[in-house]
Amino acid sequence: MTDQNKQLFLTALKDRFQKHMHRHQTITWSEVENRLLSHQQTLDTIYAMEQSGGEPDVFVYHDQWLYVDFSKESPKDRTNTCYDEKARVSRKKFPPPSSAIEMAEIMGTHLLDETLYQAIQEVDELDLKTSSWLSTPDELRKLGGALFGDRRYNRTFIYHNGADSYYGVRGFRGYVTLEK
């Protein structure tokens, strides 16, 4: 990222931060900016989240500062994915080019788990037309399944599906911790 791109990106993050103060009422932009400038790798990850349509913003969760994808729908550039590589390569017909876990690892993010997904749904209504893969416990994944969530009928739902399934309206949301 060039210095000019970095400044433009920081301005966009600041604008989003100020527009959505309900996500992080206890912190200031200057505190966030200082952390971002101290951790270039984290800033690069957040940039990748932005470039793929995630609209990342700060979310204070259990005293941690996270950058979380807050796009209204699951990020469009992250849809049509199986849950993980194992599921993707095991498909006999029409395997997608990537999986949610593989894409998240390349970007440097983590998939939201059930608890974090429920928490962001309490502050903003997301995935009204889409769904998002969620970090799945090993015991469920070993049985071939994976979790995903969405919001319908003014309620957040967590479901399961075969990890090898993929749909045009299912993607994933990521997060990265903003360290001190």
How do the strands and helices of this protein lay out in sequence?
Elements: H1 3-19, H2 29-38, H3 40-51, E1 56-61, E2 64-69, H4 85-90, H5 100-107, E3 110-111, H6 114-123, E4 131-134, H7 138-141, E5 145-152, E6 155-162, E7 170-172, E8 174-177
Parallel strand pairs: 4-7
Antiparallel strand pairs: 1-2, 2-8, 3-8, 4-5, 5-6
Name some characteristics of this structure.
180 residues, alpha+beta, 2 domains, 4-stranded antiparallel sheet, 4-stranded mixed sheet, 37% helix, globular
Structural write-up:
With 180 residues, the protein is an alpha+beta fold. The protein has two domains: 3-69; 76-172, no CATH class. It contains seven helices and eight strands, in the order H-H-H-E-E-H-H-E-H-E-H-E-E-E-E. A four-stranded antiparallel sheet has the order 1-2-8-3, sandwiched between helices. The protein has a four-stranded mixed sheet with strand order 6-5-4-7, covered by helices on one side. The longest helix is centred in the N-terminal third of the chain and has 17 residues, at 3-19.
